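Minutes, structural biology subgroup

Action item carried over from last meeting: produce the structure token record for DsrE family protein (Streptomyces boetiae). EB confirmed the sequence was re-checked against the source entry. Recorded below for completeness.
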Amino acid sequence: MAKKLVIKVTAGADAPERCSQAFTVAAVAAAGGVEVSLWLTGESAWFALPGRAAEFSLPHAAPLPDLIEGIQAAGRITLCTQCAARRGIKEEDVIDGVRIAGAQVFVTEILPDDVRALVY
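Output recorded by EB:
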């Protein structure tokens, strides 16, 4: 049975440890063969933009661009529709491979019994 992990990260540079933890868990799970869906909401929405992840720094943490690359290699990154709109972020603004989707898609992803969702 395939495993799936849905992670919703609400923290960005405003809470760097929580933010980094979410990306790290997602990247490690993806590297381990778990189907990962990472949702960028709240302040983490900014990391959907080119160059923003490279500006993030946390001592003793893996670089965010590397984690994003690992997640995208085996999973999906989604930017919350409302969070994008509140920040003026449009589909053409985001890094390659990031989709913009809303609550209906999130609910669809977490409904199956074999899915576990984490919020950071």
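Discussion: Helices lie at 16-31, 52-55, 64-74, 81-86, 103-110.
Next step: EB to file the record with the rest of the batch.
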